[in-house]
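S2.1 Query sequence (Haloacid dehalogenase)
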Amino acid sequence: MIYRMLALNIDGTLLESSGKLHKTTKEAIRYAQDKGVYITLLTSRNYASAKKAARTLKLKGLFASHHGAYISTAYDKPEFVKRISEDVTYEIVRLLESFQCQIRLVHEKFSLANKLQLNNNLLAKAIFTSGDPLAYSHQFVSELSESLVDTPVAPPKIEAYFESEQDLKDARKAVESMFNEVEAACSAPGKLDIVPAGVSKLSGLIYICDRLGISLKEVVAIGDGADDIPYIQAAGLGVAMGNAPYEVKRAADWVTRTENEHGVAYMVREHFRRQHPIAFLQKMNILKK
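Output structure tokens follow.
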């Protein structure tokens, strides 16, 4: 099979556990690009953070951020945006405020969160990643719902961080039963992602493939989280990171090394070294242009 696209999650896949992008991984991405393979990102990160990673990798094409709700290039040219309406955002915030959780409205230009202090230091650290550029503003208010009365927001994604797993389960169940306009998923321990209905990393991948005329069978997709399973299963070659949970590995066609063992670089070298450059394959009429 000839693969024309490489789709990658960022955290736990492209990046090491330290949050850094290793030189070996960057070189492997460049190796695939030199063969004419289209590189895209599928991430739950906000656009500003995803853009920083895309520019580091010198990606000029489309990628999906905000869990697939915001599809753009790294040069501020959004092609697809789906938001949670202002009214629904307000009602969801009112519901979440009945739980002990940090609520974060993740806009493409800023985040707006309540000032709740989390006792779990690891969880608190996870809320704001080192990938957020300095230009991305984090704003805090005492009462989030009150702030939205004066200044409504329609974000592509809402995040909620819980110390209690039971609270998270109860909140997710409540959101799913009360709001048909959104979908809720747990992308990491203690974290609830709420996005517009019909939005996912897979929907983002499908959109990008349709724009480029690439079939899902021609995609190598690599991920490490439960929310990566749908696109891993849909791709022509679905790859799980060595640090991924068992259910992700079970869904994949192939398991590579961990993020700290440069799993993306290892996979790229193993598979794409046997594939001729796309331009050569097109010249030989083996692959249509």
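The two ends are 16 Å apart (CA to CA). Residues 86-196 form a domain with the Hypothetical Protein, Haloacid Dehalogenase-like Hydrolase; Chain: A; domain 2 fold (CATH 3.30.1240.10).
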